[in-house]
Design a protein that fits this description.
The protein has about 300 residues and is an alpha/beta fold. It contains 10 helices and 16 strands. The protein has helices at about 40-50, 115-120, 125-135, 155-165, 180-185, 200, 215-220, 240-250, 260-275, 290-295, and strands at about 1-5, 15-20, 30-40, 60, 65-70, 85, 100-105, 110, 145-150, 170-175, 190, 205-210, 225-230, 250-255, 280-285, 305-310.
């Protein structure tokens, strides 16, 4: 099968199309013929410096949407021919930037019938991150004030929609050109981070979703009301964060997304109800994965980038 692999870490050009053996599903696994695969910031970070996956050569990619080709022993959720989407177990289960991939069946859910494989492939990692942060960790409730940083990004724009689906009042930070987009997906307020210090503009926030860390994470403590929670998907850089959070009476959590069958089903339900849809910035054929990485690394994209693996 065709796959995108790398023999060294570095710039996007280290990504090369190669031929590798097609995998076979083991017990509790399914073999998926990949139709489309999302590209996320974690892909280009792993490509550049290894991050969690430093063993080479390696095939990246965690987002996948496709068709079940075969099932391993013990699988009852899916049959060959089923259309599925899911996130391969993060971080060590990468490999969706290929024509076929195997993973535990419970990393997947049935693809919503109302969206195509490109839309479906854009969702899993980013939507699960937002869902696990806002719903599972912060337990967002109607009427709560939620601040989403980088709200037009891959995780951010899905987080805005998920928070709105739970009845929250959502505030997003983004550059001014993206404000109309954020309003169109439900944001109640938008802040131009280039023109204003968010910590001087908002207060009494119940939940902050931080995708940036650094000064943004540190300053986010100042806008939380007592009993509020900051959920970040990036490591803390302030060694005194815990003591500062305790002094303010707020909670801080750092989330690493997990493969989650129940979470994928919840995301599918949101899609089918019309409450959640991924914005696609661009698509590239599998062979042009390097171009997809280069675009993502500009930091100027809205929503998600997707590789089209098989247009059948």
């Amino acid at each position: 099968m065709r796959a995108i692999s790398q023999d060294t870490h570095g710039a996007p050009e280290v990504l090369q199309e190669v031929r590798v053996p097609r995998p076979a599903p083991g017990p509790s696994q399914i073999l998926v013929a990949v139709r489309a695969a999302g590209v996320n910031p974690t892909d280009w970070k792993h490509r550049a410096d290894g991050l969690f996956l430093d063993r080479l050569p390696k095939i990246l990619g965690w987002d996948v949407s496709g068709v079940v080709e075969a099932v391993g022993f013990g699988v009852t959720l899916f049959k060959p021919g089923d259309e599925v989407f899911g996130m391969l177990p993060y971080p060590y289960g990468a490999g969706s930037h290929a024509e076929y991939v195997t993973a535990t069946a419970r990393a997947f859910a049935h693809k919503p019938a109302g969206i195509d494989h490109v839309q479906a492939a854009a969702l899993p990692l980013a939507a699960l991150t937002a869902y696990q942060a806002l719903v599972d960790t912060a337990e967002v409730r109607p009427g709560q004030r939620v601040l989403v940083h980088a709200a037009a990004g891959g995780v951010g724009h899905l987080a805005v929609q998920i928070a709105k689906s739970r009845g929250a009042y959502v505030i997003g930070t983004a550059s001014a050109p993206k404000h109309d987009f954020l309003r169109s997906i439900g944001a109640d307020e938008v802040i131009d981070y280039r023109a204003a210090d968010f910590a001087e503009v908002v207060s009494d926030i119940d939940i902050v979703l931080d995708t940036l860390s650094g000064a943004t994470r540190a300053r986010s403590l100042d806008v939380l009301r007592p009993g509020g929670i900051l959920v970040s998907i990036r490591p803390a850089t302030d060694p005194d964060e815990a003591s500062k959070a305790a002094a303010r009476g707020v909670r801080v959590e750092t989330l690493l997304v997990e493969a989650d069958h129940a979470g994928m089903k919840a995301i599918a339900d949101l899609v089918e109800s019309g409450a959640l849809r991924a914005h696609i910035e661009a698509t590239f054929p599998l062979a042009e994965a390097a171009k997809a990485h280069a675009l993502g690394e500009t930091g100027r994209t809205t929503g998600k980038i997707v590789l089209v693996v098989d247009e059948a």
